[in-house]
Every structure is written in C-alpha cells, then in structure tokens.
Specification:
Layout lengths: L6 E6 L7 H11 L3 E6 L3 H4 L2 H8 L17 H8 L2 E7 L1 H9 L5 H8 L4 E5 L3 H5 L1 H12 L3 E2 L3 E4 L5 E5 L3 H12 L9 E6 L4 E2 L5 E2 L6 H11 L4 E6 L11 E4 L3 H10 L6 E4 L6 E3 L18 E3 L3 H4 L5 E8 L3 H11 L4 E6 L11 E2 L1 E5 L4 E3 L3 E2 H18 L4
Parallel strand pairs: 1-2, 1-3, 3-4, 4-5, 8-11, 8-13, 11-12, 13-16, 16-17
Antiparallel strand pairs: 6-7, 9-10, 14-15, 17-19, 18-21, 19-20
Helix pairs in contact: 1-3, 1-9, 4-6, 5-8, 10-14
The structure holds flavin mononucleotide (FMN).
C-alpha cells in the first residue's frame, strides 16, 4: 500500500470542522499509514476521540500529563517517530501558539520537538483568518518551512461566505502524501504531464473532442508528486478534482497544449504526453453559431501540430498510444518516429480498461523496443509502473 511503513501524526484542534478530520484519518489509515491522532482539549468538545481511535485502530493522545499515557514521554515519542505532522483543522489559537513557540499542550509540544515536515490546514471564521495577526502568524510558520493547506472559500459556520473553510480531505491527503514523498526517487525532478482530450472549436458552441477523461494523466501527476517531483500538469480535464501540490495549466486546444508544453521545454526533465491530442481541427472557426439551414454540413479539417515530434527539448519523452488494432506494432512505430524513451500502449477496444474508468491494461515499450505487458491495474498502479521506468532512465541518463 502507498503509505505502508509511514507514520503520520494528525493534529486535530477545536474547530467546528473537526469532524471532517475523521475522514482524513480514515483515508490515511486505508492507504496503509500508522496514524497517531493528537487532539487538543477543545477538539474533544467538537468530536469524540472514539471516532479517531476507531478509524485508526490506535489510541488518541490528548493530555500530555495524563498518568495513563501509553507512550514514554508522549510528545517526544510522537515527534521523533513521525514522518510527517498534519494539523487539520488548525485553529487561529493553535496557529498563534505554534508561531510563537508556546507549548502548553501535547500537540504544540510535539510540533516544537519534531524534525519532520509539518502541514497545517487552517479553518476559522473569515475575519479571524483575514486578521493581520493570523496572517502574520501564518507567514511566520511558512517562513519556517511549514506548509499551509488552504483554507478554502465557501459558506462558513457563521453563515457568512468567505475564506476560512477547511480544505477538502483530498487536498489535505495530497499535501501529506507529497511531504512524505519529498525524498523519493523523483525528488526535485521537473516533470510535465499532459492530460485530457483536447477540444477544437467549430463555432462558439460546438467543438471536436474525444473520449479521454484525463484520469491517467492525473494519476501520473499525483504519483510523480508523491515521489518528490515538481509536477506541472497541462490539462483540459478541468472537471476532475484538481490535485493539491501540482502546478496546473488549463488549456483547451492542441495548439494551446503545444505552446504550454514548449514554454516549459527548457526546464522540464521529463515530458509525459498522456493527453489525447486531436490530430485534426477545423480549418476555420465560425465566429457565429452555424445555422442548421442545410441538410448536410461539410467541415474541412487540417492537421494539428504533433506535440512530441515538434517539441524542442532534450527531455525524456514518454508517449501514449491508444490503438484499436496491431497495438504493439503501431505503438513501436510511433516510438521510433517520435524518438521517445518510452511508449505506453493500450488497446482501446478492451471493455475493462481505458477511457473514463479507473483501470488500465497497458504495455510499456522502451527505447530498444522491449515490451512489458502489464495486467489490469488501477491507473495509479500503472502510473507507478511508468514512473519506475522514468526514474531508472533519469539515473542512467548521461549529463547534458
Ligand atoms: C462553536 C465554535 C466553533 C469554533 N470554531 C472555530 C474554528 O473553526 N476555528 C478557530 O480558529 N476557532 C474556532 N473556535 C474557537 C476555538 O475553539 C478556541 O479558540 C479554542 O480555544 C481553540 O483551542 P485549540 O486551538 O487548543 O484547539 C470555535 C469555538 C466555538 C464555540
């Protein structure tokens, strides 16, 4: 499992959104992590420790001076064993204490005593959040290397709308996983990934697109992030949850995707083209909506610019080949024509994998034409298999 052997301290403080931390604790546990929950005394008024101890299967630590603490000097043990500390939700009060080094409870003591990375997800009323005291405290923490998650904009407990909602669980999880993977095999590598099907306009309302959902590209982006890479995702798939900790550039057309990719060409070390880029686009785009006044309508199409063939970069290039026949042969040909380091081939006629679903069955072909056929896997698992090969290519690559 993704987080097996990882130990996470999840700090929960006295916010109305404390109940949402149960979901975070549960998901981290399901990913295989050992989750040690620390609650402030205020947090226990909002949600019972029993909820956390049940989902994590671990005791919750609350009182630093309790006689029955199961850990030896609990704050030191928790601080030293943690791979990461995530505080979600983090109250204005706890943020202020952390910024000034006050340690009057087990959570603040643990944070002060740790060398592990710390992420905090503030949640509070908008005026409390925007107050310059809170802003200064957050800036101070950020300066010291704390990662701040959110907060999100939306309806608050007071009935007001504004910044101050606890960030969604997936963002808290995403940043926690990113911090855990900071020293991974792709640490500090710049990786650009494209995702989704491009959209070529016909007129102001209609367009030509394809069935790509973007899920494979997003799985690759998250997996690369969780192995330490600095990831830029060039995406048309704005309807998917936008993963935290990833630089996302939104595009629509093949031309926009080409320009966005070329702009990053000098700094990127790896380009993974998981997007399904249109091969053709309308020769001209009608400024007005085309009327249905004729029985037939002929659209003239022209070639789009092939991104992998035209990109000017010395980066490692990985392509995808979605094929309906002669899958391996067609993919091999594409690999050679476009001078790719790897190509990932999938058979789009298979019912249990491919477009729009969470599974994929692919074959990875390397620069020498060697084929590795993989069984049906989740897209996340496929992403890690591809990245294993990318990581190996990076280490064996001759310096420029
Ligand atoms: C109903 C209610 C909701 C609260 N929600 C928040 C909140 O979302 N964020 C916050 O910073 N403080 C909130 N507070 C205030 C904190 O609970 C209070 O500052 C407390 O001392 C925080 O303690 P802790 O940081 O040790 O958990 C709330 C208080 C009440 C009564």
């Amino acid at each position: 499992m993704q987080l097996s052997n990882k130990i996470i301290v999840l700090g929960v403080t006295g916010s109305i959104s404390a109940y949402k931390a149960v979901d975070v604790a549960s998901q981290l546990t399901q990913l295989g992590a050992e989750v040690n929950v620390i609650m402030t005394a205020s947090a226990t008024k909002f949600i019972s420790p029993l909820s956390f101890s049940t989902v994590t299967k671990k005791p919750v630590t609350i009182d630093i001076l309790a006689q029955d603490n199961q850990l030896f000097i609990p704050h030191i043990t928790l601080a030293q064993t943690a791979d990461v500390i995530t505080i979600a939700p983090a109250t204005a009060n706890t943020i202020a204490k952390l910024a000034t080094g006050i340690c009057d409870n087990i959570l603040t003591c643990t944070v002060l005593a740790t060398k592990a990375p710390v992420a905090i997800a503030p949640a509070m009323n908008v005026n409390m959040y925007e107050n310059s005291i809170t802003q200064n405290n957050l800036a101070k923490l950020q300066e010291r290397g704390f990662v701040i998650i959110g907060p999100a904009l939306g309806k608050l407990a007071s009935g007001k709308r504004g910044l101050g909602r606890l960030s969604p669980s997936q963002d808290i999880l995403g940043i926690t996983c990113q911090l855990l993977g900071k020293q991974g095999d792709l640490a500090n590598r710049h990786i650009t990934i494209t995702a989704g099907g491009t959209r070529e306009p016909i007129d102001p309302v209609r367009l030509i697109t394809n069935r790509a959902s973007g899920k494979m590209g997003y799985a690759l982006a998250e997996a690369a992030r969780d192995r330490g890479a600095n990831v830029t995702l060039i995406s048309t798939a704005t309807y998917l949850n936008q993963p935290a900790g990833i630089n996302i550039i939104e595009v629509e057309t093949a031309q926009e995707m080409y320009h966005a990719t070329q702009k990053l060409a000098d700094q990127t070390e790896v380009l993974i083209m998981a997007a399904a880029v249109a091969d053709y686009r309308p020769t001209s785009v009608s400024a007005d909506k085309i009327k249905k006044s004729h029985n037939t309508l002929t659209l003239e199409l022209e070639h789009t610019q092939d991104i992998l063939s035209n990109i000017e970069s010395r980066c490692i290039k990985v392509g995808f080949a979605a094929e309906s026949s002669n899958v391996i042969e067609n993919a091999r040909q594409k690999l050679q024509e476009k001078h790719l380091a790897l190509i990932v081939a999938n058979d789009i006629t298979a019912k249990d994998s491919g477009f729009g679903i969470d599974y994929n069955r692919v074959a990875i072909i390397d620069g020498e034409g060697k084929v590795e056929k993989l069984p049906l896997l989740t897209k996340k698992e496929v992403a890690d298999k591809i990245l294993n090969k990318v990581a190996a290519l990076i280490t064996t690559r001759k310096p420029k």
